[in-house]
Amino acid sequence: MQQLPVGVSGPTRYRQSAAPELVATPTGVEFAWRPDRGHAGHMGDRTERCAVAATSPTVLVCLHSERQRRQDRRLGAAWAGSARWRQLFMGKTYVVCGASGRVGLLVAQHLLAQGHRVRAVTRDPSRLDWLAAQGAQVCGGSIQDPGFLTEVMRGADAAFVLTPVDTTQQDVNRVQRRVIDATTTGIRESGVGHVVLLSSWGAELAEPVGGIIACHWFEEKLNTIDGLNVVHLRPVWFMENFLWNIGLIKTAGINGSVVAPHTSFPMIATPDIASVAADYLGSLSFEGRSVRYLNGARDYTLVEATRILGAAIDRPGLRYSRMPQVVLEKGMVDSGGLTPGAAEFVTEIGLGISSRLVHAEPRSAANTTPTTLETFAGEVFAPAYHAAPDAPLRARVGGAALRAMLTAIGRRPV
Ligand SMILES: NC(=O)c1ccc[n+]([C@@H]2O[C@H](COP(=O)([O-])OP(=O)(O)OC[C@H]3O[C@@H](n4cnc5c(N)ncnc54)[C@H](OP(=O)(O)O)[C@@H]3O)[C@@H](O)[C@H]2O)c1
Fold first, then answer.
1. Burial 273-304 (b: 16+ CB within 10 A, else e)
2. Is residue 64 assigned to a domain?
3. Considering the entire predicted model, what is its pTM?
4. Ligand 1: which of 118, 162, 245, 275 to mutate, judged by most atoms within 8 Å of the beta carbon?
């Protein structure tokens, strides 16, 4: 429930005696007039849905009733028009950091579709030309720069923030700390009131586990900002991480990581994270500090997950091997382009999952999200696998040697 002021302009005027209800819908924010909840309007005892335009959560600038909307349509005045129209005159303003990334991009698109204004942050604006064509204001700069972020966040209603894992850096945590400091300064100096943080499962841990420790620091730091309303989203392991294994599958014919084969753990598809983030941002209905776990559709072992991925790419015989840490890290450095420090980060998290040090809150209806691994495998993994080039002969010979070595040390794929 959100308080709106009396003083409505537009063709229909309401005398307001109680707070109406704002409902986020895929096309924007709707105003539910509920006499049964004590709302009074000129329609007396009827429930009526109206479209609302607000320049801020508390300033109502325009209100049309559904009846008026139908009339306007008949007159050919497409007042509710396009998403672009709503962005210009109706929506709120959001800053989306990491807007070229997996989650940030989808958050930006959801908010644009809801009719909001989006300031999309990237170091390379040319990467987001097409998002600009959808109405986003693309802001070029670094999220390590506090001055840039302060300017970008000034006047915004809310921000989506994260501390990316830059795998080209040897000391990933050092860069993450700079991002955290700059983002916190930007939020403080600009006075933006609502923030959704893309944190991580395991963020409650104060001991270093790969990049997760930075999410711990980030949550703690945001919690120190007086008056800030913040949701810390704690998604589990991203299904998209499997895309990194396409090279291994093409060269060695196996799937692998440092996680024990029969350890069951939750996995989530990133679009499910983005849609929850966009719901929070679109409605701005959160207050104070809160944590929201996002546990994916269900838990899987990597043996089971490998079967699902294999079936999707017409390799039903695909098997999983728990690889020695040193072997996997060397593979990530040699063929994945990661620095040794970043590769160690990845394996640290895998080992943390295996030991159950990294774990989510117990599964519930509230933290379960819709996309299954089966859906991800068919819709995302298989097309990416088929689009990737086949491994050259030399790499496949190396892959065969890797399989032989794994079998020799008792890590035969299962
Ligand atoms: N992978 C997992 O299993 C997992 C699980 C839970 C939580 N998480 C969390 O998810 C987050 C990563 O999310 P994601 O996968 O959506 O990210 P992503 O796809 O890796 O994208 C990272 C984004 O950050 C931007 N970026 C990086 N450094 C920047 C800088 N200095 N200035 C401006 N922008 C910068 C990049 O944009 P430009 O290059 O365009 O500037 C890019 O858009 C991390 O915080 C991680 O802890 C991951």
1. bbebbbebbbbbebeeeeebbbbbbebbbbbe
2. yes
3. 0.81
4. 162
